[in-house]
Specification:
single chain, about 110 residues, alpha+beta, Bacillus phage protein, three-stranded antiparallel beta sheet, globular
Length: about 110
C-alpha cells in the first residue's frame, strides 16, 4: 500500500488524529478528524506553510482542496494524486489533505 492509499484508508478517529498530531501539529493531540474547531487549527498551520485550502461543503459534496504556488505556478493536490479529494466530513478531509500536503512537500513542493 502506497502512502496515498494509506492516507485515504484511514478512518476518522484516534489513529488519524495521532498521525496528524505527530507529523504536522508538533505532537499536540486533539480531535482533529472529528471536531471542526480542532480541524481549523490544521488549516491555520497549512496557511503558515503557504498552502491555500479550499473547502466545499454542500449536501451532495464535501471536499477539501489544497493548492500551493511552486516556482510561480499553482500546484494542486488532487492533480498530484490524481483523485478527487471528497470525504464524508470536512474535518476528515482537512486531516487527509494535511497529510497529502506533507507528501507533496517531501516530493519537492
Amino acid at each position: 500500500m502506497n502512502e496515498e492509499e494509506k492516507i485515504l484508508s484511514m478512518c476518522p478517529g484516534s489513529d488519524l488524529d495521532r498521525e496528524v498530531a505527530g507529523r504536522l501539529m508538533d505532537g499536540t493531540l486533539k480531535n482533529y478528524s472529528t471536531d471542526m474547531g480542532d480541524a481549523w487549527k490544521i488549516v491555520e498551520k497549512l496557511e503558515e506553510l503557504n498552502w491555500r485550502i479550499d473547502i466545499i461543503n454542500s449536501r451532495k459534496k464535501k471536499a477539501v482542496l489544497g493548492m500551493k504556488m511552486v516556482d510561480g505556478a499553482p500546484h494542486t493536490l488532487n492533480v498530484l494524486f490524481d483523485c478527487p479529494l471528497e470525504f464524508e466530513t470536512i474535518p476528515e478531509g482537512i486531516c487527509k489533505v494535511a497529510l497529502f500536503s506533507l507528501v507533496a512537500e517531501k516530493a519537492g513542493w
